[in-house]
UniProtKB/TrEMBL annotation:
The chain crosses the membrane at residues 20-43, 63-84, 91-110, 116-143, 155-178, 184-203, 293-312, 332-350, 357-378, 390-413, 425-444. It is found in: Membrane. May be an inorganic phosphate cotransporter. This is Putative inorganic phosphate cotransporter. It comes from Glossina fuscipes. Residues 460-484 are annotated as: Disordered. CDD domains: MFS_SLC17. The keyword Transferase does not apply. GO terms for cellular component: membrane. It is a multi-pass membrane protein.
C-alpha cells in the first residue's frame, strides 16, 4: 500500500473531476444571476446598447422575473438527490446544465411576443433544471474525494459559486453594451453551458472505478482512503449500486438537524446581505449600488478571494493538527455567521456621511461569510458519503425556500425605505437567525460518520431483537459507531 501511495499522481483524475464541478457551478451561476443585468438592459436600453428592443416593465414585474428562478429551484432539490442515486451524477448533472442552457437560449427568441410572463416561465424552468445540481455535486464529491483531501477538494469545487456570481455581473454588463446587446447574455450563457456538457460527457465518471482515464495507483488510493473510514465494500470490492435510505434514522439524527438549521440560517442571513442591504443603502443612504457594476460585484469578488484564504488556513490547521475537523468546521462557521451578524447590526447605524464605511461593512460581511462553505456546507459528506446527495437535497430544499420568504418579511416590516428604524429591525432579526443557527450547530453538529451511513444499517435494524444489549447484537448502532 505504501508503494502504491507513493506513485499516486499529485494531479490526477480526482482533480479533473473537481475542476469540472467548479466549472459546472460557475456556468450555472452565470445563468442563474445574469437576469439581474439582463432586466436592467431590457428596460433601459440607453444604459447599454440602444439598438435592441426595450420593454416597459414596472418594478413588480421585474421583481417577478428576478424571483421566479427560485420558484422552480427549490422544488427539484429533493428529487435531485433521488435522480442522482438512480441515474448517477454524470447523467443528472448533464441534463441539469443542458436544460438550463437551452432555456436561456429561448429568452431572446420568445420575450417579444410573450413579454415578462414568458420570461418568468423560462426562469422557472431554468430553476427546475438547476435544482438538480447541488445534490449531485455533493454525491460526486463523496465518490471521488479521498477522506484526507475531502475538505480541500470540496471547498475548491464550491468556489465556483463566487466565481459564477462575479462573472454574471461583469460579463453581463460587458456583453449587453457590446454589439450583441442584451440577447448576447443569453447566447453566451447557453454556449458556456453546452460547452461544459460536452467536456463533462467525455471526462466525467460517476465513480473512480468507472473512469477510463484514472491510473491504478490513484484508484487504489481513493478507494483505500474511503474504505479506511468505513467498511463499505461487498465481495466483489465495489459499492452496491443502490443503498436504501434510512429515513427514520436520518430524521432522528441531531447532527443532521444541526446541519439543516445551519444551512437555513446561512440562507436567511446571506439573502439579507445579498438583497436587502443594497436596498437599504439606496433608501437610507442614497446609494444606488445595483446600477454600479463595481460596487455590485465587489463583495462577491472579496468572497471569492476569502474562500481561498479559508481553504489555505484550513489545510494548515488540519495538517499541523492544530484543530480537529469537527473543531475546524465549527470555528469557521462561527466566523462566517457571528461576524456578519454583528456587521448587519452595525450597518443599520451608519449614516449618509459614512457611505465608505457602509460599503466596507457590506463587503467585509459578505467576504467573511465565505467560511460557511468549509464550516457547514460540506458537512453532508462528513455525516454520510452514501447519502450525501439525499442529505443535500433535503437541506437545500429548506435553504432555498428562505430567499422567497425573507423579502416578504421585509415587506411587512419596512413600509418606508427611508426609515432607518424599520431597517434596523430587519437586520436584528437576521443577526439573531445567524447567531442562534450557529449556536445550534455548535451544540449538536458533528463530523463523525453516522451509523446510518452503513449499507446494512436497515437490515441490521430489522433483525435486531426487541431487547438487546451491545454483546447480544453485533450489528447494533452502538457497535456500528465503534466500527467507524
Amino acid at each position: 500500500m505504501t508503494t502504491e501511495s507513493n506513485k499516486v499522481p499529485v494531479l490526477g483524475q480526482r482533480h479533473l473531476q473537481i475542476l469540472l464541478l467548479f466549472l459546472s457551478i460557475t456556468v450555472n451561476f452565470i445563468a442563474k444571476f445574469n437576469a439581474g443585468v439582463s432586466v436592467v438592459a431590457m428596460t433601459n436600453a440607453d444604459t447599454t446598447n440602444p439598438d435592441f428592443p426595450e420593454y416597459d416593465w414596472n418594478e413588480m414585474e421585474k421583481s417577478f422575473i428576478l424571483s421566479s428562478f427560485f420558484w422552480g429551484y427549490f422544488v427539484t432539490q429533493f428529487p435531485g438527490g433521488y435522480l442522482c442515486r438512480r441515474f448517477g451524477a454524470k447523467l443528472t448533472m448533464f441534463v441539469s446544465t443542458l436544460g438550463s442552457a437551452l432555456f436561456a437560449l429561448l429568452i431572446p427568441l420568445t420575450v417579444d411576443w410573450g413579454g415578462w410572463q414568458i420570461y418568468c416561465g423560462i426562469r422557472v424552468c431554468q430553476g427546475l433544471f438547476q435544482g438538480l445540481l447541488f445534490p449531485c455535486i455533493h454525491a460526486h464529491l463523496a465518490a471521488w474525494c479521498p477522506v484526507q483531501e475531502r475538505n480541500r477538494l470540496g471547498a475548491l469545487a464550491n468556489t465556483g459559486i463566487e466565481c459564477g456570481t462575479v462573472l454574471a455581473m461583469f460579463l453581463g454588463g460587458i456583453i449587453a453594451a457590446s454589439s450583441m446587446g442584451w440577447p448576447g447574455i443569453s447566447y453566451v450563457s447557453c454556449a458556456l453551458g453546452v460547452a461544459w456538457c460536452i467536456v463533462w460527457l467525455i471526462f466525467s465518471a460517476n465513480t473512480p472505478s468507472e473512469s477510463k482515464f484514472i491510473s491504478a495507483p490513484e484508484l487504489a488510493y481513493i478507494e483505500s482512503s474511503k474504505n479506511a473510514e468505513r467498511n463499505m465494500t461487498n465481495d466483489s470490492g465495489t459499492k452496491p449500486a443502490r443503498i436504501p435510505v434510512p429515513w427514520k434514522a436520518i430524521m432522528a439524527s441531531w447532527p443532521f438537524w444541526a446541519l439543516l438549521v445551519a444551512r437555513s440560517s446561512q440562507s436567511w442571513g446571506f439573502s439579507t446581505l445579498q438583497a436587502e442591504i443594497p436596498s437599504y443603502m439606496n433608501g437610507v443612504l442614497g446609494m444606488d449600488m445595483k446600477s454600479n457594476a463595481f460596487f455590485s460585484a465587489l463583495p462577491y469578488f472579496v468572497m471569492w478571494c476569502m474562500s481561498y484564504v479559508y481553504l489555505i488556513l484550513a489545510d494548515v490547521l488540519l495538517q499541523r493538527k492544530l484543530l480537529s475537523l469537527n473543531a475546524l468546521r465549527k470555528t469557521f462557521n462561527s466566523l462566517a455567521f457571528w461576524v456578519p451578524a454583528i456587521g448587519l447590526i452595525a450597518v443599520g447605524f451608519v449614516n449618509e456621511n459614512q457611505r465608505t464605511l457602509a460599503i466596507a461593512l457590506m463587503t467585509a460581511n459578505v467576504g467573511i461569510n465565505a467560511g460557511s462553505t468549509i464550516g457547514s456546507a460540506l458537512n453532508t459528506i462528513d455525516l454520510s458519503p452514501n447519502h450525501a446527495g439525499i442529505l443535500m437535497g433535503i437541506v437545500n430544499t429548506s435553504a432555498n425556500v428562505i430567499p422567497i420568504l425573507t423579502p416578504l418579511l421585509v415587506g411587512l416590516i419596512v413600509k418606508n425605505e427611508d426609515d432607518r428604524t424599520e431597517w434596523q429591525i430587519v437586520f436584528v432579526i437576521s443577526a439573531l437567525v445567524f447567531g442562534l443557527g450557529n449556536l445550534f450547530f455548535i451544540v449538536f453538529g458533528s463530523t463523525q460518520l453516522q451509523p446510518w451511513d452503513d449499507e446494512n444499517y436497515l437490515k441490521s435494524a430489522s433483525n435486531k431483537p426487541n431487547e438487546t444489549n451491545e454483546e447480544d447484537c453485533p450489528t447494533s448502532s452502538v457497535q456500528l459507531s465503534k466500527r467507524y
